[in-house]
């Protein structure tokens, strides 16, 4: 799984909603599809794309399959996103330090 395939999978708003429904825990297709504006087979197709992107996994539970967010796939996406957060925090820290030096110079 690469972050590129994860981002591509989440680019579709319906697929993103399917993914978000798994936030509270594992669910069968029927539970995910309930209340959605697309059919159950369409939800299954969205889950297949999310699974191929490494964002969800499934396990059999009797005659049905239960889907859940795959922590490894989500971790790879988060690692990619974290690099931007780290850069933003470093830039913020540099600005704070510059401001603190400026304030110190004005107090003298």
Describe the structure.
By secondary structure, this protein is α+β, with helices and mostly antiparallel strands. The protein has helices at residues 3-10, 13-21, 29-33, 40-52, 71-107, and strands at 27-28, 56-61, 64-69.
For the largest beta sheet, what order do the strands appear in spatially?
1-3-2
Shape: elongated
The number of helical segments is 5
Q: Residue-averaged pLDDT, rounded?
A: 91
Largest sheet: 3 strands, antiparallel
What portion of residues is helical?
A: 55-70%
Number of strands: 3
Secondary structure elements and pairings:
Elements (H helix, E strand, L loop, with lengths): L2 H8 L2 H9 L5 E2 H5 L6 H13 L3 E6 L2 E6 L1 H37 L1
Antiparallel strand pairs: 1-3, 2-3
Helix pairs in contact: 2-4
Q: What's this, in brief?
A:
This protein is α+β, with helices and mostly antiparallel strands and 108 residues long.
Descriptors for this entry?
108 residues; alpha+beta
């Amino acid at each position: 799984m690469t972050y590129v395939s994860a981002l591509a999978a989440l680019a579709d708003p319906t697929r993103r909603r399917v993914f978000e429904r798994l936030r509270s825990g594992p669910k069968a297709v029927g539970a995910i599809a309930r209340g959605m504006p697309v059919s159950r087979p369409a939800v299954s197709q969205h889950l297949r794309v999310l699974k191929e992107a490494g964002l969800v996994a499934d396990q059999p539970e009797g005659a049905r399959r239960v889907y859940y967010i795959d922590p490894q796939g989500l971790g790879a996406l988060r690692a990619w996103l974290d690099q931007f957060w780290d850069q933003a925090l470093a830039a913020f820290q540099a600005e704070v330090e510059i401001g603190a030096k400026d304030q110190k110079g004005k107090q003298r």
